Amino acid sequence: MLRRKPTRLELKLDDTEEFESVKKELESRKKQRDDVDVVGVATSSDMVGASGGTGDGKTRELMINERIGYKPHPKPNTLPSLFGNLQF
């Protein structure tokens, strides 16, 4: 394998200005999203309080599963499923 010399990258003034503008734009988006999340959390916590707060852990688990796209398929607890198809 041939060894290359390290590549030299030069930072220009335009690059730093572009970085700052993108950074400010992302921060403003994040701030808007956080404001929306705070309002959403307040309304969902009000709904949980109105329902009595029962099953909070289960609903939170379901919300997380839906958000990440996880769909659990529980396995049945029968002997063939535990030991497979054993034939003698």
TrEMBL record:
Pathway: Protein modification; protein ubiquitination. It comes from Esox lucius. Residues 69-88 are annotated as: Disordered. GO terms for cellular component: anaphase-promoting complex. It is found in: Nucleus. One of its GO terms (biological process) is anaphase-promoting complex-dependent catabolic process. Belongs to the CDC26 family. This is Anaphase-promoting complex subunit CDC26. Keywords: Cell cycle, Cell division, Coiled coil, Mitosis, Nucleus, Ubl conjugation pathway. InterPro entries: APC_suCDC26. It comes from the Eukaryota. Residues 78-88 have a biased composition (Polar residues). Its main location: nucleus.
